[in-house]
Structure formats: C-alpha cells, structure tokens
Write the structure tokens for this entry.
Amino acid sequence: MLSPIKQRRLAFSFGVVGAISFWLPDLVVHIATGRNFDSPHARVITVLMPLTFLFAYLVCRGLAARRDFDWAGAAMLLGAWLTAGLFMTLAATASGGGFAGPDGVPGGLLLTVLCIFPPITLMFATYDGGGLALLAVTIGALLFWAVQSGEIRPPFRRPPK
C-alpha cells in the first residue's frame, strides 16, 4: 500500500506524462507549420495525439501496476485536460497568437486560466485543431473504464456463470 504522499506524487507524475504525451504532437505540428496550419495538419494531429497518449498510457499502466497505483489513466486524462490551455497557448504563439498576440502575456494567461472549465477547453481545442482528438481520448478512456469495471459488457465476452 502506498502512502498518501507517494500516491499524490505518482498521480502528479502520470498527469504530467498524460499532458505531454497528448499535447506534444499538437505543439510540434503548430510550431512546424506556423501560420500555414490547415485541415491536413488538423487531421495529422487528430490521429497523432490519441496514438501518443495511448502509447504513454500503455507504458504508464505497467509502471503503475508495479507500484499498486490504480488511477494512472485517470491522472493522465486529468493532466491532458488541465494543461490544455497552456499547450494551446504555446501552439498559438507559433502562429502569432497566444503569448505573441496583441495582448501578449496577459491574453495568453487568460486563455490558460479559462481552460480550467471543460466546455471552454473543448471549444478552444476544437479551434486549435485537437478537439476531436480530445473527445476521442476522453470517450475512449470512459468506455475502457466502463468495460474494465464491468459496467458495460463487450459483445464478444460471454456472460459470467
């Protein structure tokens, strides 16, 4: 059994990994394209963001199992949602918005703080190009949790006797 301090430290670590693994492809594509970001780039990040998150989750799930920590996926998902504003602001900075926009740092900080509210986060992520990826990861995680907990039985599993 882990102490509460170690549990919080692991949850924070997994949250950071979830945030970086989810938002890093978005940030890299925005920096690489600058002002030329368009729909093919949005399609690329829609595929890359969930894939990198899934890969990181599979690695973290193994680490969490060795430490008897059951909430690695939830911590990673929470990290992706809570840091969305910061990463989207950094991505927008590459194209002249965000911290480089007319409002500068105050405008960038406002966007970062507003993304604490999930509806605003989803709206800004859609504008950023990663809204579908954020929905896919969130709904996928909720479905995975429901199947794992037994709340939803997949059609290919036989009912218990």
Notes: Helices lie at 4-33, 39-66, 72-82, 84-93, 104-114, 118-128, 131-149. The two ends are 32 Å apart (CA to CA).
